[in-house]
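Aim 2 progress. For GNAT family N-acetyltransferase, the working sequence is reproduced below.
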Amino acid sequence: MQIIQTSESEVVAHLNKEVHDLHVSLYPAYFKEYHFETVNEFFKNAMTNPRFLFYIIKDEDQYLGYAWIELREYTENVFMRAYKSIFVHQLCISKRYQSRGLGSLLINKIDQIAKENGINKIELDFWADNKIAEQFYLKNGFKDYRRFVYRDHH
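Predicted structure tokens for this construct:
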């Protein structure tokens, strides 16, 4: 088993289907139905951005999951100090390979990338109703420091 950086948009687009379908089921008012060609084109374009990095977990010729991360630099302003972070846009392990420690392996890889780049903070967000993601991130040492809330206007 190996974790490798990839520019194969098709692989990521296929792996994305499960997490996207979960989001559609949790929030159908927000998420469109999964469409491979559109999602593949999105990832193909995203992979041209040098700040975005994509990693896949591969076991022989089976793709087990992926992470999409971004190297971010926040500039100092009147309110906040400058800092660097890795932002995890998506982290997904295929259902049939979950609960085997593979997500934690991806987090360890992201930790390694952070260390290699002199970055001390890894950030991410997830949808509030995704309890599996919440449990996973808490188990891996993530904690709240900011909340994103909303209210519908009547």
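The first helix runs from residue 9 to 26. This observation will guide construct design in the next reporting period.
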